[in-house]
Amino acid sequence: MADEFVLLNVGPSPFGMRVKIALIEKGITCEHKDENLAAKSPLLLQMNPIHKKVPVLIHNGKPMCESLIILQYLDEISKDKSPLLPSDPYQRAHARFWGDFVDKKIHPTGRRMWAGKGEDQEAGKKELLEGLKVMEGELGDKPYFNGETFGFVDLSFVPFNAWFYTYEKTGDFSMEAEFPKLAAWGKRCMQKESVSKCLPDPHMIYDYAMARRKHI
Questions:
Q1: Is the pLDDT of residue 216 over 80?
Q2: How many CB atoms are located within 10 Å of the residue 141 CB?
Q3: Mode of pairing for the β-strands spanning 62-65 and 31-34
Q4: In this structure, are 50 and 113 located in the same domain?
Q5: SS3 for the chain, per residue?
Q6: What is the pLDDT of residue 1?
Q7: Does one domain contain both 156 and 187?
Q8: Together in a domain, 177 and 96
Q9: Please, how many CA atoms are within 13 Å of residue 208, restricted to the half-sphere of its CB?
């Protein structure tokens, strides 16, 4: 009997985008179910009763939550297909560190900037720019964070490429001017079919963020 995968997700979620890209990279067929977080489905509440958040990947009826954990799970069950994490233990730990950095330093400060106002927005912008500067330093002159190949850190960070336009509009800065290496990296990643298929139009993300902002 073939494995069954179901992904519970919300379209604009960068965390859900990660899982969608990884599924394509791994060649895994998956049923996708869009959630309405204002009226969460019984399935979501059953599969993620602790946090009640997306994404949730259900594999043969068993749920996995938290996107970085899901990526590692997918890598472990299909090591022979497009490995995401390096084989070296130190390099694996290094990649996990940067995935965690994205979640703790890029996502929350970006949200603080586009959702905030006044001094709070300015503080969010300052922290976001600092975080992006650190990420650009880690990328350096490599094509990908993993080196010559697309890997775990790239996969963790690339969904935010769809949010860069929102960051630019709400923060009044240019990714191309401020972070040329990250801007070039984003364009390079978008040439991958798995990425271009899963990242929505940046203008759609901006419209979504501005609609959300009105209710925050």
A1: no
A2: 5
A3: unpaired
A4: no
A5: CCCCEEEEECCCCHHHHHHHHHHHHCCCCCEEEECCCCCCCHHHHHHCCCCCCCCEEEECCEEEECHHHHHHHHHHHCCCCCCCCCCCHHHHHHHHHHHHHHHHHHHHHHHHHHHCCHHHHHHHHHHHHHHHHHHHHHHCCCCECCECCCCHHHHHHHHHHHHHHHHHHHHCCCHHHHCHHHHHHHHHHHCCHHHHHHCCCHHHHHHHHHHHHCCC
A6: 57
A7: yes
A8: yes
A9: 16
Contact 124, 109 (CB under 8 A): yes
Q: Give 105-150 pLDDT, tens digit per residue.
A: 999 999 999 999 999 999 999 999 999 999 999 999 999 999 999 9
Cis ω on the peptide bond leading into residue 63 (within 30° of 0)?
A: no
Domain span holding position 37:
5-77
Amino acid at 142: K
- The residue behind tokens 């084989």 is 87
Task: Judge whether residue 159 has pLDDT over 90.
Answer: yes
